[in-house]
Write a structure and sequence with these properties.
Largest sheet: 3 strands, parallel
CATH architecture: Alpha-Beta Complex
Number of helices: 5
Number of strands: 5
Order of helices and strands: EHEEHHHEEH
Distance between the termini: 33 Å
Helix content: 25-40%
Strand content: 5-15%
Number of domains: 1
Strand order of the largest sheet: 1-2-4
CATH class: Alpha Beta
CATH superfamily: Ribosomal protein L13
Structural class: alpha/beta
Oligomer: single chain
């Protein structure tokens, strides 16, 4: 299943994709940088920055490590919806591929839109894209 992430709500999309993955389907998501997150920008920045700044007190080079690129942020969010500690969750996670933009191999394919996660139905102005969050986390 190929999914276009343009104007999709991150959490709702992640939930649907996790269900597809657990059902045994291979899922490819393109345009990961155009996925949107709802909520106040300052709160989102603060929550993600706190997560990325976590380190081990004894040895800061040890984890946990959180992603900072758009594709990895989307992938990690979907991982949070899967039963990661079970073999079925890890196998489902291996069936997921996430890309920024549209790779040449997928340029003529038809993409599925998840209607439950469509951001066009939002009436709020409190949204941000994953690429904005990524630029903030990387310090750009």
């Amino acid at each position: 299943m190929n999914i276009d992430g343009d104007n999709m709500i991150l959490g709702r999309m992640a939930n649907e994709v996790a269900q597809y993955l657990l059902a045994g389907q291979d899922v490819t998501i393109v345009n990961a940088e155009k996925v949107i997150i709802t909520g106040n920008k300052e709160n989102i920045f603060k929550r993600f920055k706190h997560r990325t700044d976590l380190s081990d007190r004894a040895n800061p080079t040890h984890g946990p490590f959180f992603p900072k690129t758009p594709a990895r942020i989307v992938r990690r969010t979907i991982r949070g919806m899967l039963p990661w500690r079970k073999p079925s969750g890890r196998a489902a996670y291996r069936r997921l591929r996430v890309f920024e933009g549209v790779p040449e191999t997928f340029e003529g394919s038809d993409f599925t839109k998840i209607e439950n996660a469509d951001g066009a139905r939002l009436g709020t102005h409190k949204i941000m894209r994953v690429d904005e969050l990524s630029r903030y986390l990387r310090g750009e």
